[in-house]
Design goal:
With about 210 residues, the protein is of the alpha+beta class. Helix content is about 55%, strand content about 15%. The protein has two domains: about 1-60; about 65-185, CBS-domain (Roll), CATH 3.10.580.10. The protein is globular, with a radius of gyration of 20 Å.
Length: about 210
C-alpha cells in the first residue's frame, strides 16, 4: 500500500511540475519530458488534459453567454440527395471546411474536407459518384441557440469534435466551430491558450 501511495505521490509531483513548466516557461514538450524523465507522448497527454481543464474553467466564466452570440449564421448546407462533388464545390465557393447535410430541410449529418478525401480512398470512386446520404457523418450533435458557450465547449471536449450545428425548431440556423470558442480565450491568463486548445482537440480526435 505504501509503495502504491509513493508511486501516486511521485506521479502527482511530476504532473504538478509539468503544469508549472507549461504555465511559466516556453520549453517544448520534448524539453519538459526530458526534465521530468518521462515519455514525450505521456507528457503531451498530461499537457493536453491541463489545457482542456484550463479552457473549460475560462469558458465557465462565460457560462451565461448564449451560443447564438458567437455562431456563424452563413452555414454551408446541402440536401442528402447531392453528391460529394457538390459538397466540394460548395466548400470552395464559401471557403468552408465542412457542409451540413440536410434531409427534408432538417439537419441530417455533416461532411468535411477530410471525410471526402477518406471516402475517395476507401471507395476508389469519383466525387460525383459518392452520395452524401451515404458518406455523411452521423449522428449529428446539435445545440439550440440558447445553449451556453460553456456547455458547447464541454460538449466539444467530451466528444472530440470541432463543429456543432445550431438548430432551432428543427431548422439549421448557424454553426459553432472550435475557433469561435478559441476567440474567447485570446485575452486569458495563459497566452497562446486558444492555439493550444485547437491542438489538444485535434490530437484527441486523431488518437
Amino acid at each position: 500500500m505504501a509503495k502504491t501511495d509513493k508511486i501516486s505521490s511521485e506521479t502527482q509531483r511530476k504532473v504538478d511540475f509539468i503544469d508549472s513548466l507549461y504555465l511559466y516557461s516556453d520549453l517544448s514538450v520534448e524539453r519538459i519530458a526530458k526534465a521530468v524523465k518521462m515519455n514525450v507522448k505521456e507528457v503531451q497527454q498530461i499537457i493536453d488534459n491541463l489545457i482542456k481543464k484550463d479552457a473549460l474553467e475560462i469558458m465557465h466564466e462565460q457560462a451565461n453567454m448564449p451560443v447564438e452570440r458567437i455562431m456563424k449564421k452563413d452555414v454551408a448546407s446541402l440536401d442528402c440527395s447531392k453528391t460529394a462533388l457538390d459538397a466540394a464545390n460548395l466548400m470552395i465557393e464559401k471557403g468552408a471546411g465542412c457542409v451540413v447535410i440536410t434531409s427534408q430541410g432538417r439537419p441530417f449529418g455533416m461532411i468535411t474536407e477530410r471525410d471526402i478525401l477518406c471516402e475517395m480512398t476507401v471507395f476508389d470512386k469519383r466525387l460525383a459518384q459518392l452520395s452524401l446520404e451515404i458518406i455523411a457523418s452521423r449522428p449529428l450533435i446539435c445545440v439550440p441557440p440558447v445553449e451556453t458557450v460553456s456547455n458547447v465547449a464541454d460538449l466539444m471536449m467530451k466528444n472530440s469534435i470541432r463543429r456543432v450545428p445550431v438548430v432551432e425548431d428543427s431548422k439549421l440556423v448557424g454553426i459553432v466551430v472550435v475557433k469561435d470558442l478559441a476567440m474567447l480565450l485570446s485575452s486569458t491568463r495563459r497566452p497562446g491558450l486558444a492555439k493550444a486548445i485547437l491542438g489538444a482537440i485535434s490530437r484527441s480526435r486523431n488518437g
